[in-house]
Amino acid sequence: MHCPFCRHTDSRVIDSRANDDGTAIRRRRQCPECGRRFTTVENASLTIIKRSGATEPFSRDKIVSGVRRACQGRPVSEDDLALLAQRVEEALRQQGQAEVEAHEIGLAILGPLRELDEVAYLRFASVYQAFDSLEDFESAIAVLRAEREPVGTEPVPSKTRSKT
C-alpha cells in the first residue's frame, strides 16, 4: 500500500475493524517513512458471470431496479426492496464464491420476493422462468396455494348466500 502523502511503497497496519454490515474492513495505517496516518477500506468483491460470458461487479441497485418492476402497483416500499437486495447479496456471499452466475441471482431473488409479495413473485417468476402459457401460471399458483394450506386440511369453500 503506497502512502498517499510521500508515496512510500510500504505502510504498517495499526488497527483493523469490520464495517457495520460486515462487507468491508477498515484499516488504519501508518507510513514508516513520513510517520503520517491514513485509512484504507477493503471490500470483498463479488463478480457476476453473465450468460454471454462477460463479467461485472455485483450491484444491489440492479437487484432493486429489476424487482421494482415486478412490484409496480404493489404495497412494497423502497425499504422493502433494499432489504430484499441485502438478503440476496448475503445469500450469494454465503455460498463462499467470488464469482456467481447470473441465473443464481434470479434463484436467490425468488425466495425473499415470495415472502415479500406473492403477486410480485409471480410477475418476476413469469419473466425469469419464461412462462409460456396459462398452465405455467396455474402451476405456479397451485404451488403457492399448496404451501399456504396446512397439510391434511381441505381448502375452505367460499361462502355462499343462504336463501332465506
UniProtKB/TrEMBL annotation:
Cofactor note: Binds 1 zinc ion.
Cofactor(s) demanded: Zn(2+)
Coiled-coil ranges per UniProt: none
Keyword annotations: ATP-binding, DNA-binding, Metal-binding, Nucleotide-binding, Repressor, Transcription, Transcription regulation, Zinc, Zinc-finger
Source taxon at top rank: Bacteria
Zinc finger (unnamed): 3-34
Ranges where the ATP-cone domain occurs: 46-136
Keyword presence, ATP-binding: yes
Role: Negatively regulates transcription of bacterial ribonucleotide reductase nrd genes and operons by binding to NrdR-boxes.
Family membership noted in the UniProt record: Belongs to the NrdR family.
Classification via PANTHER family: TRANSCRIPTIONAL REPRESSOR NRDR (PTHR30455)
Protein name listed in UniProt: Transcriptional repressor NrdR
Gene that this polypeptide is encoded by: nrdR
